[in-house]
Amino acid sequence: MVLEVGPFLAITDYFLLASGGSDRQVRTIAEEVEAKLAAGKRKPIRREGSADGGWIVLDYGDFVVHVFSDAMREYYDLERLWKDANRPDLPELVEAREALA
Description:
Elements: E1 2-4, E2 14-20, H1 23-39, E3 46-50, E4 55-59, E5 63-69, H2 70-76, H3 78-81, H4 91-100
């Protein structure tokens, strides 16, 4: 899920939320995000958390990627906290969603 938080926060424009069903999935999702963006010469400004803790945060400046375990995503419920934020559909997300349908 993508949340456009720029109108509410001065530190970033978007939160990208993802979750995995296990520590291994959380770690793999975060590693894959880092690898794909590194291929485009983007490296995170900061990396916080761990899969063991159920939450990894990758800060790229204009967007922040939050990778949660299912339980931590439900617990923190950023979708509810940022319920007033716009939820744009990025073209890649739309294409992926259509491919699964």
